[in-house]
Design goal:
It is built from three helices and nine strands. The protein has helices at about 1-30, 55-60, 135-140, and strands spanning about 35-40, 45-50, 70-80, 85, 95-100, 105-115, 120, 125-135, 150.
């Protein structure tokens, strides 16, 4: 009987350790360069992202892409906050554009940008990063002004939703 109790205790210890390791791995994955996590009043959403942090990658953006997974996106990161202007020239899929300040706080969301439209989309002043996801997802997930974005790019912010 003592052996059975010891086994039960060991099983619980192993399960608790596995849960702690899984939680730590999930937190670390949420702060990887290829992942953006958004936390708002309706919960948390994660996107696997391509990083656009150079003039060349920002200029290319998501142009000529015929599709994008619903769990994917592109994160545009700038050297310093400023006015962010986008357009949809050569972009084939509708996009939601989520504009964030240097702390990762969402300032504005432009929903369902129209493919091929060359009308400027103004994200406003103080924009440090822009997350592009499939059109309509921001509304479905409850992403709006005030939502917090987690990514290593916001570390110097100081981040509103820190990685650590």
């Amino acid at each position: 009987m003592g052996s059975r109790l010891a086994q039960t205790g060991l099983t619980r210890l192993v399960a608790a350790t596995a849960l702690l390791v899984a939680s730590a791995m999930a937190a670390a994955a949420a702060c990887a360069p290829g992942v953006v996590e958004l936390k708002g009043p309706r919960g948390t959403a994660r996107f696997a992202v391509e990083l656009a942090d150079t003039n060349a990658t920002r200029a290319q953006g998501l142009m000529f892409r015929e599709k994008m997974a619903s769990s994917a996106g592109m994160l545009f990161v700038y050297d310093r906050p400023g006015r962010a202007m986008f357009w949809m020239k050569n972009t084939l899929i509708p996009l939601d554009m989520i504009f964030a300040d240097p702390t990762g706080k969402v300032l504005r969301v432009h929903e369902n940008a129209i493919p091929h439209d060359e009308t400027p989309i103004d994200g406003g002043d103080g924009v440090f990063a822009v997350l592009e996801i499939n059109g309509g997802l921001a509304r479905r997930l409850g992403i709006g002004p005030g939502t917090l974005m987690r990514h290593p790019a916001f570390a110097p912010g100081p981040a509103a939703l820190p990685c650590d």
